[in-house]
Each structure stands twice: as structure tokens, then as C-alpha cells.
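Loading example: each entry is read as two labelled lines plus one structure line.
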Amino acid sequence: MSRNPYVREVPKTSWFFRQPRYMRYMAREVTSFFIGAFSLLLVVGLKRLSEGPEAFQGFLDALRGPWGVLFCLAALVAAVYHSTSWFNVTPQAMPIQRGEEFVPGKMIVGAHYAVWAVVSLIVLFMGI
Amino acid sequence: MSERQIQLEVLRYDPETDREPRFQTYTVPCLNEWVVLDALNYVKDNLDTTVSYRWSCHMAVCGSCGMMINGEPKLACKAFIHEYPDQIRVEPMAHFPIERDLVTVVEDFITKFASVKPYLIPKEDKPVSAGEFKQTPAELMKFKQYTLCINCMLCYAACPQYGLVPEFLGPAAISMAHRYNQDSRDGGRDQRQEVIASHEGVWECSFVGACSEVCPKHVDPAGALQQVKVASTIDWYKEHLMPWSKK
């Protein structure tokens, strides 16, 4: 009997439609574009700030426009999804062993949320 | 005991006559307590002796009967019929070439698995008269979960990265390297790092996490791979920022 293995090719551009878990993974990856775009926006804002008060006011006015608000909202939703999806897997990447037991994953994830909340409050406080 | 008729769709491929695989459907009277492997055995014993598939222990220990069941990587001996609709589709494990019917070609995995030296490499030779290598329960806990791996390869069937980049060393092989690296009795990490910290090694992993979700023994290969990434990154910084320090 001769061997004649059959190879099933994985579709390079549509493989992630095959499984909901692949879609969740792609969602995590795609949301990083919004974070990148928002970081670029901040860099543009810094450049405008360096160009003087009028330039910076123009930048702020543009942000207050409908497209600016829409983009910021989309970036916020994407950033929350992206961050929480990473928070939730931190116990796998950084398990903490105490003696013969591992610290429960919920505590590691919870610590991330707690630090996030504190940092957000500090940023909000500085913004007021 | 209640009986139920299911339509079992089996992907068939005869390397001598078929140009590509095709589905063949069998009507199987199943008891509610059956697993998919029982249904396949019913087909083999009563309906069609030519169906080929691997199995051995029927108790989720040998790791032989891995296959795609309704598109999900599963052990056929652990997939209970009562958890499925009346139509069940079984296919060979994804990402592996098909040898025949549900039997896959697994040489690639075996070669990769051997390449990570999945055995204890003691730090120094010790005569038998010197006694055993002792280990505390805490030291054992560090790697115990990885010892539960049964090499069923479901993690490879779940990993899209392995499907897209067949050179990827893959979840089980890297997890097993991590298992020995974490073992207090072992001194072979440097030898394994050459293989697992390479581009085709752990850096091909993008942490989809599918491997851990499908593992029938609740091992966490995805976690092992991320821990290997962290350790390899620390190695890199030590090597470049502190060249005077030994790894």
C-alpha cells in the first residue's frame, strides 16, 4: 500500500471565521489599531501644542466635532476590550506560586483592574 | 437505557483511490451513555469495516482518538453523544495531513516533540549510590500540570498558527520543554532554549489561547508558552544589558 497523504490547506485570509474563539482573538488584535491610531492622535496634539495656542485650540475644536467624538468613543470601546482581554489572560502568563499553591487567577486579574481604576482616577483628577 | 438514532458523517479518504476526501453518512443507533468513539466502533463492527481511525484506551489516557467533532478538536472517547445534536460530523484532526479516513500523519509532531529533549537532563552526573534526586512538593507543583499532557495533539489541531505556519514548534512540544525547564532536578534549559526560543519556536505563538481551551487534560499550554516568552525576554536583556552576567 502506498502512502499518499492529503493536505488540507488553511485559507490564509479567512481562517478566523471558522471558530468563535478565533474571532475573539482577531477582535483583540484588531482593536490594537484603534489604540495605535489614538496614540498618533496624541502625538499630533503635542505637535499642535508646540505650534502655539491657536493651533492647539484648532486641534481641540476638531476633536469636539462629530467625527472627533465618534472616533474617541470607538477608540475607548476598543481600548477597553483590548485591555480587558489582556487582563483576563495575565494569570496564564504570570502565575504566582506561594508554597504549594498558586495565587488564584481572579486575584491577579483583579489586581490589574484595581491598578487600572487607580491610574484612571489619578488621570481624571489631574484633568479637572 | 434510552436509545437514539444519530447520523454520523465521517470524512473518508482512501489514499489509493481518492483524489480528495468525501463525507460518508452512517445511521447509528446509540445509547445515550455512548461517546462518539462508541458510535465509530459500532460503524466498524456492524456497518462498514473499512473505516479507519486510531483508538486504544477508551478512557482519555492514551491520546489516540483525537479528531474534529462538529468542527471542534476532541477526544472521541470523551465526547458524549448526549451533548450533540442528531447529526454529528467527524473529521481527522485539523492541520495534519490525512493518512486515511480519520487517521492523520503525525511524524511532524513526533519530530518536533523529540527536538525539545523532553526528558530530565541532570545538572551533574550522580552515581546511583548517591541516592535519588529529591524534590519538595512546592517544586513539584511548579510543573505538575504539564506532566498531565497525553500527546493527543488536539492543541495542534486547535492552533491556527500551526495551521498557517507548519514550521511552528507548537504548543505541546514547547509546554513539555517548559515542564522540564521548571523541574528542579533538571539542568538542560540551555540546550532546549536553542530550539524553543527560536523564530519557529515560541515567538511564532500569538497567544490565541485555543490550545488551552481544547486540552482534554486541562493543561495550559498557552500559559506555558507565555512564560517561556517572558523567560526568553529576560535572557535577551541579561545578555545585552549585562553581558558580564552568566545566563
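Chain B has two domains: 3-104, 107-241.
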